[in-house]
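Structure (tokenized):
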């Protein structure tokens, strides 16, 4: 785990033709749809996106001669944006309890068999929404105590990454205090982590995490002297978020004697694909990271989901819906979720839904949870801790038939828990605006 520094220098198939038509025709409709989606994911994430004509606008000098200066340097010229960002969870992922004693959420004075540390033992606190973990400093590294606080349920739970969960688990000893956070966490929870010196420019998702090193921009403020993700093509713009909001592994491992779980060497302005590969998945298999159809199974996989979506295929960016500089809405949405969705998907829109009202599309009352866009298109099926789940980002409607075939939860019976998938399918078939052919996949 790093110590803070002021500045740190940064460095920077053959094609074959396969005739698979015969075997493809033998696949069922669900398998064919999934196979098509796989091809879309491969080509789009690799940057071969023929439907997108925007040319990425990246400063030609890239990282040469630039260095990181810290978010405080941005405040002088951008005080309002800085002020909003400073209040976000992005700016407060990791906090020092000596500076922010309120950061520790549970009452550590109450005994618990899982908790064998005191407030004085905690060097850093991680998390404040779903779960909270506690870091102890040993030498120049930090390690996670084996107990975490479930914020939703207000209970202590064990923390230990078992074999068969994250890919790196069997490559480290089965002991939290032999698994440093530097290789496994800190690259995404800081700016400019240097794996050689274990130093950082600053903790948390600072300005330069998304805009790249800012020294030249501070010295010569102009559009040409800084990366603005809003002016990048959709592949590179989304990769700004995918670098941390995805499950994957570096192309090179180990490095400096450790296995890293974040894209070492990547800086905004470079190509993420040169440093990072998304976690592989075999269709039909349910794993710790994926459901059988390829939908993410756990938190922090929004990027894995999103590159499969039609939204991504159409060139929609993460920033089309989210503003990481800070908003008053959940998940830093630009507007409340259903308002956000309906700006592009209102009744009568060519994008759908193809009904005169939203209620005709959802078949739920106007003010009911089932009438919300995210209820059906972004169900909470991806685990973050225990029974607490976060929303998927494929935007696909998961049919009850998919539950029967692949055991992936569908939004109908996830809400109507007392009902069966047969009941849900029958109800969907009775809706005139639902294609019967969609219900078998």
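Design, position by position:
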């Amino acid at each position: 785990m790093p110590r803070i520094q002021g500045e740190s220098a940064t460095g920077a198939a053959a094609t074959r033709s396969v005739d698979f038509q015969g075997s493809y025709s033998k696949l069922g409709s669900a398998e064919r749809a999934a196979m098509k989606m796989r091809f879309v994911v491969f080509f789009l994430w690799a940057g071969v996106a023929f439907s997108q004509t925007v040319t990425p606008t990246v400063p030609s000098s890239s990282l040469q001669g630039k260095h990181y200066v810290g978010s405080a340097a941005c405040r002088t010229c951008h005080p309002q944006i800085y002020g909003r960002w400073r209040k976000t969870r992005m700016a407060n992922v990791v906090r020092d309890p000596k500076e922010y004693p309120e950061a520790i959420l549970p009452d550590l004075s109450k005994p618990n068999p899982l908790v064998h540390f005191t407030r004085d033992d905690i060097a850093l606190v991680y998390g404040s929404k779903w779960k909270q973990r506690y870091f102890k400093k040993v030498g120049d590294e930090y390690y996670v105590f084996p107990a975490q606080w479930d914020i939703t349920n207000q209970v202590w739970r064990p923390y230990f990454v078992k074999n068969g969960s994250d890919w790196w688990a069997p490559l480290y000893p089965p002991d939290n205090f032999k698994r440093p956070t530097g290789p496994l966490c800190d690259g995404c929870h800081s700016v400019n982590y240097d794996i050689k010196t274990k130093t950082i420019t600053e903790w948390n998702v600072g300005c330069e995490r998304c805009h790249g090193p800012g020294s030249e921009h501070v010295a010569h403020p102009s559009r040409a002297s800084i990366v603005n993700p809003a002016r990048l093509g959709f592949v590179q713009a989304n990769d700004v978020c995918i670098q941390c909001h995805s499950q994957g592994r570096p192309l090179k491992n180990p490095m400096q004697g450790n296995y890293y779980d974040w894209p070492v060497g990547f800086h905004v302005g470079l190509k993420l694909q040169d440093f990072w590969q998304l976690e592989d998945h075999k269709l039909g298999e349910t794993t710790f990271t994926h459901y059988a159809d390829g939908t993410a199974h756990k938190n922090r996989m929004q990027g894995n989901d999103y590159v499969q979506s039609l939204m991504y295929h159409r060139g929609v960016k993460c920033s089309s819906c989210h503003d990481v500089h800070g908003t008053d809405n959940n998940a830093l949405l630009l507007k409340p979720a259903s308002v956000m969705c309906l700006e592009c998907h209102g009744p009568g829109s060519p994008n759908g839904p193809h009904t005169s009202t939203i209620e005709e599309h959802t078949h739920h009352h106007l003010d009911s949870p089932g009438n919300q866009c995210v209820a059906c298109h972004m169900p909470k099926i991806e685990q973050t801790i225990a029974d607490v789940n976060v929303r998927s980002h494929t935007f696909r409607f998961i049919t009850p038939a998919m539950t029967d075939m692949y055991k992936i939860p569908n939004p109908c019976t996830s809400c109507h828990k007392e009902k069966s998938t047969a009941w849900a399918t029958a109800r969907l078939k009775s809706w005139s605006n639902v294609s019967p052919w969609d219900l078998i996949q």
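Reviewer-requested clarification: Residues 29-45 form the longest helix (17 residues). Residues 74 and 82 are 7 Å apart (CA to CA).
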